[in-house]
Structures are given as C-alpha cells and as structure tokens.
Write a structure and sequence with these properties.
The complex is a heterotrimer of chains A (790), B (169) and C (285). With 790 residues, chain A is an alpha+beta fold. Chain A has 22 helices and 32 strands. In chain A, helix 12 packs parallel to helix 21. The longest helix of chain A has 28 residues. Chain C has 3 domains: 46 residues, Uridine Diphospho-n-acetylenolpyruvylglucosamine Reductase, domain 2, CATH 3.30.43; 116 residues, Uridine Diphospho-n-acetylenolpyruvylglucosamine Reductase, domain 3; 106 residues, Enolase-like, domain 1 (2-Layer Sandwich). Classes of the chains: A alpha+beta (790), B alpha+beta (169), C alpha+beta (285).
C-alpha cells in the first residue's frame, strides 16, 4: 500500500536535533546580502502596474487604453479581454457536495466583484512610468447593487457574484446531535455571538513575481515570493495551458508569508502571459496599498456558540454556527471553506463534549477573497469557546484552570474520538493547564485583581488551551472534508566528498528551514550540520506542495528521513563489506562510518562516499552505487501538537486603552528540532495574535469600499504593543514522524487571540461588560462600558 | 539649485558607507529606490513606501531617516550609512552578531531598518533600558519575531561594550 | 506606489523660495517631507514643483529673547525634543513632541511642515494654540504675522496663501505650568484625543487657566468657558472633573474608523481632567 510506504518513520539517533543551532541564513540577512524578489534585476526587465477596480460591484461598460498605450516607455497595456483569450482565470472550490465553485478571471472583463480586483495592466520601462500610464486608462463603470456584509447577503436583495446563487458558496452540517433537551435542562448555558474581524497577514515583503519567457526555447523562469513553488508551477501549467516542464519556479529569499503567499494569485497568471507576449522579463512588485486591497484577506467569521454546563462545570453539549464573510470568489487552492468549515471541525477543541451541533456557512460578499493566514479556520471558534468557558467558570465560581481541568481529554482517555469524529491519540492537555497555572501564579493573580479593583484599576486573566492539527497531510485534509492527497518529497544526496545536499520544495519564508532541515538531514546521516546544505529555491528540485499549515518540519523530517534511510542502508552495506562486518553492525555518527561501539574501526563519510562513487573494487556484489534517493512523506494519521496561552491585561476604563502586561505560553510540539526557532515561532505568532485581537481590522464601508488601505489605518502591533512572553515546553514525541517531531508554526495564532480577548473580558466582567467583537479597540471598550451602565 | 523640469536628470554626489558616489536621477525617485537601483545597494528594503513600516530606515549624517520619505536628490552632500556598511569585511559587527545569537530576525526583511534604528540609539546611549529600546524601535514593524528577541539583542552586554567603545572612539 | 513626476528646486534663500512659490500656484514647499511625501506616494496630490526648503539654514534655529522663543519653521521635531531651551521655557512643546511619530520621522519632520499641513489630529497645532504662538509668514511683499487662533481654517487649511511661506513660530514664554495628555491607538500614532492644560496658581487658587483640546474638531479648540470657571478655584480632583465637563459638554466631535464621536467627546473630558490634575500637581511640587 502506497499510503503505508509514504508514512514509514525513519529511526536515527538525535544529535543536532534538539540543539539551538544558530541559523545558517543569518549572516546573509544581517549584511543586506539576502536577495528578495524586488532585488532581482534582469537585462531589459520591464515593470508592471495594475489598474484595480474602484467599485465593489460594477459593470465595466467602456475601457479606453489609447492614451496609456501611446505613452513613451509603455510596452503593453492589456485588459481582461486580452487575458481572457488565454485563460479563464482561477477556478476554485472544494470537491465535495453542494459546493459552488467560482472562476476569478485573470483580470475582470465584464463585471468587477470587489474593490481592488485587477482590471488592466500596464507594462513599462519603470514602475513609475507604469503607474503614470495606469492613471491615463479611462474606464466607465455602471455600478451594481453591492453585498457589503453577511446580513445583506442573507437578505438576498442583491447577488455578489452571479456564479453563486443566493450568495451561498457552501453550507455544511458537520455534526447534528440532538442537543435541545440537554440545553433546555442544563444548569447553565453560556452563549453569545462572536464577530471575528477581517485581517490581513501583512508580511513585511509584499507579493510579487518576475517572469522571463525565452521564446527560442519556450522556457519560462518564474521568480515568485511564494510558499508553494512546486504547486504554483503545476497550477500555472494548468490555468495557462502551458506545459509544466517548460516552467521553472524559483523562490528567492521570501520576506514572510504567513499563508498569504500560499495561494495562486491571478496577478501571477497575468504577468506570465504578458512576459510570454513580450518575450522580455517583467517584474511585478506589489505595493502596500495593493496588498491590503487585493492580497487575500483572512479570518472574517461570525460564530454563534453556546455551551451547556452542569453544576460541577462539566460541559454537556455545544452548539456552533460559523459563518464566513468569504468575499467574491473562492481562493485557490484552499477555497472559501478554509475558515468556518475548519473552525466547526475543531469546535470542541481539547475538551470532552459529548453532544455537538455544528454547522458552517460560507457567504459571498463583494469583498476581497478570504484566504489562508496562520491558524486559518481555528482562531475565531477557539476565541468564542474559550471566552464562553471563562464565563462559565465565573458563573460557577470555579477557577478558569479548574473548569478546564474538569473537561479536558486526559491521557487515560486516549485514543479518544470526539463528537466531530476526530481521533485524538496524543497530547498533554491536563499538564498544559497545570503548567500555565503555576506560571501565572493564579492565587497571587486573584489577590492582585481584587486589590486593583479597590483602587479603580481593572486587570484580567484570559486562558486558552489548544491542540493543533499540524503537518496537514491527506488524513487531516480528509478529516476536514477536503479529499485531497498531499505529500512532499525530498531528494537527499551524499556527495562524493561526503557532504550532503538535500533538495526539497519546502521553501522558507523566514521559518529557518535551511537550518532546521539541515539538522534533520545531519542526524539522519550521522554528519555535522555544516556538512549539509538545503536547496529549496527551484522547482528543478524535488516536487512538493510547500511550506504552510505547520507542515514543513513534519514533511521535511518525514521525507528527508525516508530518503536518508535508503542511503544509510547502502552506506552500511558498503562499509560492512569494506570492514568485513555485517552491515547491521555499522553506525553512522560524527561524520564517520564505523563498527558500533568501536569508533576506531571505521572511516570517514568522505572515504565511504568516495569509494561508492569512484572505487568499484570496494563495492559488494550487485551494489547499486546511486547515492541519491528521493522519498515522499504523508503522515499515517493526524499529527497533534498542543499547548496553551494565558494573558494578563489592564484596562483603563476611562479611555478604553488596554495594556497587555504579560503573556504566558506552553507548547508541546513533540521533539523540538531547534528550541530557539520554536520559541521564535511562538513569540511571532503571539505578536500577530495581539495585532489581530486588539489593533488590526480591514474596514469596509457600506459600499464595500475598503477604508484601511495604508499602514496608517491598518495597524500592525509594534514593540510597545507586545510584552515579554514567558515560555515553557512540554515534550510528547510523535511516533508518526522521524525524531518525534510535530509542527507548531500556527499555534499561537490559533490560541493566543482567545487568551488576550479573554483577559479583556475578565478585567471588565465585574462591570457587567463583555466584548465579543474584534478588533477590541478603545472605542469599542468604551461603548461596551457605556451600554453596561445604561 | 534652480528649478529643474520633471523629466530632467539631476546629478547627485553623495557618500554612502564611506565611499563617494555620483549618480543621476529624476527628482521624483525616492532615496530608497535611488540607493537600490542607482547604486545597487539592495540591502535597504521597501515595505510600505509611506513611512510607516520602517523597513527602509537608514542613517543620514548619523541620524535615522526613512529612505522612502526622502528624495534621491536630497542625498546631495550627505553622509549615508546602510546595512552594507556595518560589517567589517567578512566579520559581523557585535550588534549584527547579537541579532543572530538572540534570533532577532526571521524573514530578515525588516532587519536592516532595525539595525539602523538600534545603531542610532546605541550611539546616544550604550545601555538603554528595555523600555527605552521598545519605545525607540516602535517605529519599525516586524511581522515575525514578536520583538522580544530584538530587545534582547540590543540590550546584550557585548553590544553595550561595543557601543561604549564606538562612543569613546 | 511611486511619486508622480514633479519639477524640483532647492533655493538658497527664503526670498528665492518665495519667488519660486509665487511663480507657480501648483508648486509646494517641501519641508521635512514626512507628511507630503506619503501623500504624493499615494498620488493624492500632484504638485507641479517641489520647492525644497532643506538648504534654508536661517529657518533651522531656536532662539530665546524678549520673553519669546522663536522656532524656525525648518526646526525638526527631533531638535525640539532635544532642546534644553524648550524644557525650560516651553515644557508643553517638549512634552507633546514626544508623541509625534517615531525618531526616524522626527529627525526629518519639521514644526513648520506639521503646522502648514494642519492635521487636526497632530500635536503641533494644539501646542501653538495652547501657547498662543504667532506664525511668521513671508511673501514677496514682506512678512506678516498671524495669531495661532487665526491660523487654522479647518482640516488641512491654514492662513498661508499661495506664494507664501511659513518661516517661524514665536512662542511667548508662558508663566503657566503645563501638562499634556493624549490617547492614541499605538504610541506614535495620530491622537484619538488630546488635551493640554496650563495653570497659574496663586496660594493654591487658580489665577489663570488655559485648556486646549485636539483631535476633536477640524482644528484645536480652546475651552474658554472651562478656563473662566477655574479662575479663583483650588484645582481639586472634583473641580478638574467639573472643568472637564464644561470643556466638553457642547463638543460636537466626529467619528471615524479609529474612534466614535461619543468616544472622542467623553475621553476629551478625561484628558482635560487628567491634564488639569497633573498641572496642579506640577505647581505644588
């Protein structure tokens, strides 16, 4: 069975794995020598600027490009009519029942469906000239009724996109237990409607691509700031009907992605077509305004949630209805179902909740499409549930730690299949709660909270316990109702001089993969980390989907481990032959190959490799000297990482200003490859969580006009908004991944928003105030306080 | 300088990282683009082009400035310092080393801006408090690290020793 | 996001600058560029020519004399923040300029540029209003002076006419003790609301008070009724709260994506109360 083979778990001793090795890529980045997309210049390179729709929904009645095309320095002006000749655009959806697929044209050619949608492109000698020319393009629009939010979409007085009947992309009832009696008879029901604000991943480097088409050979070189080079290549071939083997996608240094760069964007199709038309390299470097307008938005959900609780604080049943404000099209490849459908699939979290009614709804609106952003799908539901749990604890006069302890899935329950049918076979949920309680010093906090109130100060504690399906592969996709096969591969080669070259499609956008994957390969072959190089920059290398969903560590370890296994066997075979011992008695460690327990009886890896490549006389009989192996990996089951967050905040009730005093984080990502990098992922995710909870919001007006189109209005957290973070680790090695590794990149964005929002709620609960709408701005806190007083 | 028409090139003489440069540019080209594309100094990054993100922060006559909010022609006669000038040969300076040791960078796109801001701060005060560091770097956005390790890196004793040395030199 | 094309001039004297501005209605002075250049990058403005003031050394100094602090229009926020003269004579300016953006903006951004832009959410317009400063404006005919109270004509509108240049701000040295309060989404951002309070006390009683509100209207507002109310009173917490109530009761503020009108009105009161309380404490200390 293919499935079993791909999930074989290589075994090797850990040496570099677990060490906080300094990053190989840092000297380059610290001296300005890293080459990002905008740093690429090619002879004769042209520059592109898009004209984007100023209306949320309108018919294009007339376009006149003559003035722009006549401008000096302008090489090409195209509209949707031109690109439509070559591609229908990006067709996206999910292969399941009742799913409405959409087609986002490369550039709108009849109707525009959101503000910021591509309408025309200018290619010119410089970006500034392209922008000058873009202003000369004269476009007439006839405005159409706008579906500006979910409420309007439901009324169905207007249709956001004619492809989507009733503005419903997908409706899914995940689980439908009969919960009514339980709710009717419960000692306590906590319930509310939670509005999760629309945000942007906002990597510091915007999107972009540079494309060169060599007409004499038909080869296309496509530099892209992407997380998914391999898959991007396949889909460029697919959407543009270009033979896949003629395309090479090269990933330069990428300045952050966080999911936003894990999509196929229509702009990429357009630039590719224009480069082919002109046979001259074209660079498109998105500006910040374009990024906020038209790079996928994220996390926009409304969750109606209720939990029935008994007198002892035990959860009896949960109801969750999650709606995504999905925008006008499905994103590719994830579809609009990447938000609420996933959220409902994980709505019970780490808790034993026997009865659940959970359904999700993806609603079309005239806004930019919703796509992936760190913790995608999980954040909104996690926030709703954890705030309700805190509320139940207050009602029942239980500590927030105790109520969770009473409900959490414990080791003795494993394997535990929860109400949404997730089989949970590992995790340290109870331990996480205990560790966080100690870190927070809860008894002390309670006293501080009371003392503070006595002098008119309001401090609060928020808590959030999570698990994460990291390393998302075929099994996890299918759990979420998306039957797609996903694996990644790596090619491992021991070079003739005994060094190791690994090629993979797991491109790094800052996660440190050139270092962590080298740590894995080093241990898998018993060599030092400086003897390994990771090459992930070209699709000329091994095929794979890429880096997203906390999967690179898992898929990297799995595929490198399996490929290295093949080489290890060969190395043992030849070394055994040369040293006249059985191959089983050979070990690979410290850059040497020797007899187990007798380091003196052996040779260096370089000597063994040299013998394999250049000395047939040393080969055993029928020895295949190929010292290169490619292997794929796809975990045999869901990989579950887990942990928790706590936050303490102080709210100034006169101004609504919130000061985040401290954040505590516990993470169990199995065996850590590089603790320094693990903690970097945790801290960075927490900062994004603070931003998404307190500061960041993409605001549209009633006409679907995006109001927050600069960093002056879309507010990212700065160094004074993020406190120092206290971290502890738990370690439950996975038995499904080499080294016991699990993924973790997304965890903080799944769970920390709940802790921060929960802390604000806890601070204000004594005033009868609850805040269920993000972003939690001073003005919204003020309004909630005013409403509570009246 | 007399009025120069919009499409006319202006010759600029400037010093960057101790080296003299002469280049010609239209008035409307910002200093970040001039450094990047006229002088080939690509280490200065452009994150927002409207002065908020701080990625393009450089030192002009020793003081921090947003390269996207200056014109290339305003480099005339200035002494500019960018990330390309901060290592000594192939040796990172102690601040750069400290950034590496403390894992104060991930994707690296914001890093040159943070180094510029920190360099200016450390020249004024080699031993700033964590609060002073946080306040000073709050004009530079980082989407990866959560800032704490950047503060750690700037407050490192080896950095303070280096900064004191620079100050007395 | 590239600047539109513009002509460029870098005059060596104020006279030259004013001549250039007078010769072209669409020309704009370029001071620190920290506000103008983002506007150009967003192509929200397309001036024909930028008249770069950065060579005008005569506009870059701070001088003290005759009970007046004269601050050149091209003095940067960083210069003002570092100025020992200001800490002695204009403590309100020293306190408020701390809230202006971030160091790398303050090193280039100038007081004159900020005032000429006249963003009601910026600190400098509030400071000149509170301190009753005089704006010195030069044109081809010579020099004219405009009181701060007459200078701001609404959002992004000032008394500076086409062909004119703001060259200096003259602050009378105040014998009040000052306090400044501001709320912003993040430190360094434009104010959601701000207030400055100045008190002159005599044996514990208020002899004179000055209260100015910012970011609540299209220009800084003096709360004269509240100022009158305070005269003769001891500024206790209760009195400060009452003055804040008077200062804001008729305020018709505006809402935007960052804060509602009601928030601005109410929190403006809080800012006044806090500023008055601190100013009173400063005095007794």
């Amino acid at each position: 069975m293919n499935k079993v083979l791909k999930s074989d778990v290589a075994q090797f001793p850990l040496n570099a794995i677990g060490q906080s090795i300094l990053r190989k890529e840092d000297p380059k980045l610290l001296t300005g020598r890293g080459r990002y997309l905008a740093d690429i210049t090619l002879p004769g390179m042209l520059h592109a600027a898009f004209v984007r729709s100023p209306f949320a929904h309108a018919k294009i009645t007339h376009i006149d490009v003559a003035a722009a095309a006549a401008m000096d320095g302008v090489e090409l002006v195209w509209t949707g009519t031109d690109t439509q000749r070559f591609t229908q655009g990006v067709r996206a959806g999910q292969n399941c029942d009742n799913y409405v697929h959409t087609t986002q044209p490369a550039m709108a050619h009849e109707i525009v469906h959101f503000v910021g949608e591509t309408v025309a492109i200018v290619v010119a000698a410089s970006r500034r000239l392209a922008e000058d020319a873009a202003e000369l393009i004269d476009i007439d629009y006839e405005e159409l009724p706008v579906v500006a939010d979910i409420a309007e979409a439901n009324e169905a007085s207007a249709i956001a996109n004619a492809e989507i009947p009733d503005n419903i992309i997908h409706h899914n009832v995940r689980v439908a237990h009969d919960v009514d009696d339980t709710f009717a008879n419960a000692a306590l029901v906590v319930e509310d409607v939670f509005y999760n604000n629309r945000v942007s991943a906002s990597p510091m480097e915007t999107r972009g691509c540079v494309v060169n088409h060599e007409w004499t050979t038909g080869l296309i070189t496509f530099w892209s700031a992407t997380q998914i080079p391999g898959f991007l290549r396949t889909m460029l071939a697919n959407f543009l009907q270009i033979p896949e083997h003629t395309i090479e996608v090269i990933t330069p240094q990428v300045g952050g992605g966080f999911g936003q760069k894990a999509h196929v964007h229509v702009e990429e199709l357009v630039i590719c077509l224009c480069a082919r038309e002109l046979s001259q390299p074209i660079s498109w470097v998105e500006d910040r305004q374009e990024n906020l307008l038209s790079a996928t938005h994220a996390k926009h959900q409304i969750n109606t949630m209720a939990i029935a609780v008994d007198n002892d604080g035990r959860f009896l049943a949960l109801k969750n209805h999650a709606t995504t404000d999905s925008g006008a099209y499905n994103c590719f490849p994830w579809s609009a179902s990447i938000e609420s459908k996933i959220g409902v699939g994980t709505c019970t979290g780490v808790y034993k909740i026997p009865l659940v009614r959970g359904e999700s709804l993806e609603v079309a609106t005239n806004k930019c499409l919703i796509g992936a952003y760190r913790g995608v799908g999980w954040s909104a539901g996690q926030t709703a549930r954890e705030i309700l749990i805190d509320r139940a604890a207050r009602e029942l006069k239980l500590s927030p730690f105790e109520i969770r302890r009473r409900n959490v899935i414990r080791t003795e329950d494993f394997p535990y299949t929860n109400a949404t049918d997730l089989r949970i076979h590992e995790g340290t949920f109870l331990e996480t709660i205990d560790v966080l309680e100690r870190m927070v010093d809860y008894e002390n906090f309670k006293q501080r909270q009371l003392d503070a109130r006595a002098v008119g100060k309001y401090i609060g504690l928020g808590l959030s316990i999570f698990h994460e399906l990291g390393g998302i592969g075929t099994r996890t996709n299918s759990y979420f109702g998306n039957p797609v096969t996903t694996y990644d591969s790596s090619t491992v080669r021991v070079d003739p001089t005994g060094t190791v070259t690994v090629t993979t499609a797991l491109a790094s956008s800052g996660q440190g993969l050139p270092t962590t994957l080298a740590q894995i390969a080093a241990d898998a072959l018993g060599v030092s980390v400086d003897k390994v190089v990771i090459r992930a920059e070209s699709t000329a290398n091994a095929y794979g989907l890429g880096t997203f969903a906390s999967r690179a560590a898992v898929f990297g370890a799995g595929s490198i481990g399996r490929a290295a296994d093949v080489l290890r066997t060969k190395i043992k075979q030849i070394a055994g032959h040369m040293l006249e011992v059985s191959p089983e008695d050979i070990v690979l460690e410290n850059d040497t190959v020797h007899v187990a327990g007798v380091p003196a009886r052996g040779m260096s890896m370089a000597e063994v490799a040299g013998a394999i490549y250049f000395a047939e006389s040393a080969h055993p009989e029928n020895f295949d000297p190929t010292l290169e192996a490619t292997a794929t990996f796809d975990p045999a089951d869901n990989i579950l990482a887990n942990g928790g967050h706590a936050a303490i905040v102080e709210v100034d009730i006169e101004t609504g200003i919130v000061r985040i005093e401290k954040v505590f984080a516990v993470e169990d990502c199995g065996q850590m490859i590089n603790p320094m990098i693990v903690e970097g992922q945790m801290r960075g995710g927490i900062a994004q969580a603070i931003g998404a909870t307190m500061l960041e919001e993409l605001v549209h007006d009633e006409n679907g006009q995006l109001v927050t189109t600069t960093f002056m209005d879309y507010l990212l957290p700065s160094a004074v908004d993020v406190p120092d973070i206290e971290i502890e680790h738990l370690t439950t090695p996975s038995d499904l991944v080499p080294g016991g590794i699990k993924g973790l990149g997304e965890s903080a964005m799944i769970s920390a928003p709940a802790a921060v929002a929960g802390a604000v709620n806890d601070a204000l609960a004594c005033l009868g105030v609850s805040i269920t709408r993000g972003a939690i701005t001073p003005s919204r806190i003020f309004e909630a306080l005013q409403n509570a007083q009246t | 300088m007399k009025r120069v028409a919009e499409d006319e090139l202006i010759q600029v003489r400037t010093t960057v990282n101790g080296r003299s440069y002469t280049f010609s540019t239209e008035a409307r080209v910002n200093l970040a683009d001039a450094l990047r594309y006229e002088l080939g100094l690509l280490g200065t990054k452009v994150g927002c082009e409207h002065g908020v993100c701080g990625a393009c922060t450089i030192l002009v006559d020793g003081k921090s400035a947003r390269a996207c909010l200056m014109l290339g022609v305003q480099a005339e006669g200035r002494d500019i310092s960018t990330i390309e000038g901060w290592a000594t040969g192939k040796e990172l300076n102690p601040l750069q080393e400290s950034f590496r040791r403390h894992h104060a960078l991930q994707c690296g796109f914001c890093t040159s801006g943070f180094l510029a801001t920190a360099t200016e701060l450390l020249r004024e005060n080699p031993t700033p408090t964590r609060e002073e560091v946080r306040e000073r770097i709050s004009g530079n956005l980082c989407r990866c690290t959560g800032y704490e390790t950047i503060v750690d890196a700037i407050c490192d004793p080896e950095v303070a020793a280096f900064a004191r040395g620079e100050q007395s030199a | 996001m590239k600047f539109p094309a513009f002509a460029y001039a870098r005059p060596a004297t104020v006279e030259e600058a004013v001549t250039l501005l007078a010769s072209d209605d669409e020309a704009r002075p370029l001071a620190g560029g920290q506000t103008l250049l983002p506007i150009l990058a967003l192509r929200m403005s397309m001036p024909s020519c930028l008249v770069d003031l950065n060579d005008l050394e005569e506009l870059k100094s701070i001088t003290v004399g005759d009970g007046v602090v004269r601050v050149g229009a091209m003095v940067t926020h960083a210069q003002n923040l570092a100025s020992a003269e200001h800490r002695t004579h204009l403590p309100l300016l020293s306190a408020a300029v701390r809230h202006v953006a971030h160091e790398a903006i303050r090193t280039r951004g100038t007081i004159g540029g900020s005032l000429a832009h006249a963003d009601a959410a910026a600190e400098m317009p509030l400071v000149v209003t509170a301190l009753e400063a005089t704006m010195v404006i030069v044109n081809q005919q010579g020099e004219r002076r405009v009181a701060a109270s007459d200078f701001f004509g609404g959002h992004f509108t000032t008394a500076i006419e086409a062909g004119e240049l703001l060259t200096a701000i003259e602050f009378p040295i105040s014998d009040h003790r000052w306090a400044f309060e501001e709320v912003a989404r993040r430190p360094g951002d434009f104010a959601l609301v701000m207030a400055a309070a100045g008190l002159k006390l005599n044996n514990g009683a208020c002899e004179s008070a000055r209260i100015t509100l910012g970011s609540v209207a299209d220009r800084p507002l003096r709360a004269t009724e509240a100022e009158t109310f305070l005269v003769g009173k001891s500024v206790t917490a209760g009195v400060a709260a009452e003055a804040a109530q008077i200062a804001t009761q008729d305020l018709k503020s505006h809402g935007d994506i960052h804060a509602s009108a009601e928030y601005r009105r109410t929190v403006a009161g809080t800012m006044v109360k806090r500023a008055l309380t601190r100013a009173a404490m400063e005095q007794s200390a």
